[in-house]
Amino acid sequence: MSDRLLSFEAIENFRDFGGYASPHGVVRRGLLFRSGQLSRSTHSDLERLDKLGLGHVVDLRRSSERIKQPDRLPAGWTGQTLSTDLGGDGEAPHIQFLRTQELTEDSGRRYMGQTYERMPFDPAHVALFSDYFKALVRGDAAVLIHCAAGKDRTGLLAALTHGLLGVSADDIMEDYLATNRAVDLAGRAGEFAAALERWTGKPVAHGAVVAFLGVEADYLHRARQAIIDRCGSLESYMQAVLGISPAQRAAIIERLVD
Predict the structure, then answer these.
(1) Positive or negative, the Cα torsion across 167, 157, 228, 241?
(2) Which of 28, 73, 31, 27 is nearest to 48 (CA)?
(3) How many CA atoms lie within 13 A of 1 on its CB side?
(4) For residue 183, pLDDT beyond 90
(5) What is the pLDDT of residue 95?
(6) How far is CA 249 from the centre of its chain?
(7) C-alpha to C-alpha distances, 30 to 55, 97, 136, 177, nearest whole angstrom
(8) Are 58 and 153 in contact (CB under 8 A)?
(9) 0.90 exceeded by pTM
């Protein structure tokens, strides 16, 4: 993963998710990026962001999250931020879960699994995912997708992008699970547990941290199965739910795959 992970001072989980093979060729590098939030970007981070030639930044966070921790982008950046205010009032669901329920390994996995089953059809995600894919049709510059940690909302959208481009299921999963290495989940689990304990006032076990703050294959499988159950296929989901036509899909492939 070392050739995909870009090092920033204060932006977590920043990766190029191009470079994978598909039946159409190889997904181009330097056009598709994913990360955690940009609110703590340092001066050095902003200089590096500026050199990536970003035409769009897709902020998958709720409006309440964006207001609390707004993105920091390079001065004079002329690109466009895509976001939505649909369903964005009040606490983010993961914050409400932590505030109202005990975080255990079982409850963390149950919450994450249910979240992934809902995500492909959440109205805010549908609107923003659709805008993102239509931006891929229109634009020729690089795109960055991000949420708070760059693992769930971002992970699903990256997986949908790979699926549209014909990337293999194994490579889609490899990119998705790379978050655990990118953030050094195993090495930092104690640090994350301590932060959660300070915030909730309750002890948090290692397994609970891994289940809640990491990514697991079953989570992405749950999202895929929800799509299959309701739409029959990824192609049908793209067209019927996101409004991406076969012609638009072909245009995205032509632009992003060599």
Answers:
(1) negative
(2) 73
(3) 19
(4) yes
(5) 80
(6) 20
(7) 12, 36, 14, 20
(8) no
(9) yes
